[in-house]
Amino acid sequence: MADERAQYFRRLRRLRRSARRWSVLAGGLGGATAVLTPYAGIGLPDAIWAGAAGSAIAVAAWRWADLRALAATPAPPALDPAEAAARSRARLVAAVERLPVGPGVLAEVRRVRSRLALRGTTAAQAWARLDRAASTLDGMSGRLTGLAEPAVREAVEADRSLRDLAARVASVERALKLAPNEPLAEVHGTLAGQLESGVSAYERLVVAAAGYVAEDARPTTEHPAAARLTEATDLLHGVASALAELRTPHTPVARG
Questions:
Q1: Residue 229: which H helix or E strand, with range?
Q2: How many CB atoms lie within 10 A of CB 54?
Q3: Considering only Cβ atoms within 10 Å of each terminal Cβ, which end of the chain, N or C, has fewer?
């Protein structure tokens, strides 16, 4: 949403400029009408000048009335700097998302930002392992169809949950560095153990998905592409042999 205060002042400036332009136009047309209209009567050209002058005066009066009405309205309050920055970021993100490569760029920026937020904590290594596994799974997602689709949906939910858990582990760890606390340390150990087991389970899922893709792509006999290439090779060999025989001169056999 655009800044309402900025919109208010832009509209105020536009109305002021419009009122001034119409006032100048009305004055010019009114002066020309007074000078050019003959005393002996008004002809058709004079009526046109007079009508144009009257219309310009009316429009100028309306513009000044609108300007006074808008100026009498209190301006919207100024946005909080944090809210203004948030709106600017939202507009920037929306503009990037409309680009062909926008979603991929934004996803990479979010990953980098999350990685930097976890830097210096024990969750950083688990997060990096999860990120590598998720990238590997994403590269195979187009081939994980049929019976594998429920596993892919489960992996997406698990990825989101584990990243949230990593952020929690990092937050608790930073709190412990500020003020060591025995119960909080126990909670941190529990959360860290859950994160480690969750990332390990995710990695096992990725390995299983790779096995599914490999078995799904492995033919029981020779690959069709290889078979077609073999047939084409044999055909070329046969054509080459036939051409060689046609070009080889044959010695006529003598008859007794």
A1: helix 224-247
A2: 14
A3: C
Distances (CA, A) of 94 to 89, 97, 98, 99, 102: 9, 5, 7, 9, 9
Q: Which of 12, 9, 10, 1 is nearest to 77 (CA)?
A: 9
Alpha carbon 84 to chain centroid, angstroms: 21
- H or E element at residue 17: helix 4-36
Backbone angle region of 3, left / alpha / beta, with phi > 0 → left and psi within -120 to 50 → alpha:
beta
Instruction: Please tell me the distance from the alpha carbon of residue 215 to that of residue 30, in angstroms, as a whole number.
Output: 89
Three-state secondary-structure class, residue 99: coil
Q: What is the pTM of this model?
A: 0.52
Confidence band for 33, pLDDT divided at 50, 70 and 90? confident
Please, what is the angle between helix 182-217 and helix 149-178, to 10°? Answer: 160
Instruction: Extract the tokens encoding 25.
Output: 């136009």
Specify the pLDDT at position 82: 67
Q: Please tell me the distance from the alpha carbon of residue 232 to that of residue 240, in angstroms, as a whole number.
A: 12
Q: Which of 113, 78, 77, 79 is nearest to 93 (CA)?
A: 113
65-69, 142-146, 217-221: least confident range = 217-221
pLDDT digits (tens, 9 = 90+) for 122-179: 888 888 888 888 888 888 877 877 777 888 888 888 888 888 888 898 888 888 888 8
How does residue 101 score in pLDDT terms, banded at 50, 70 and 90? Answer: low
> What six digits make up the tokens of 225?
């592409």
pLDDT at 256: 46
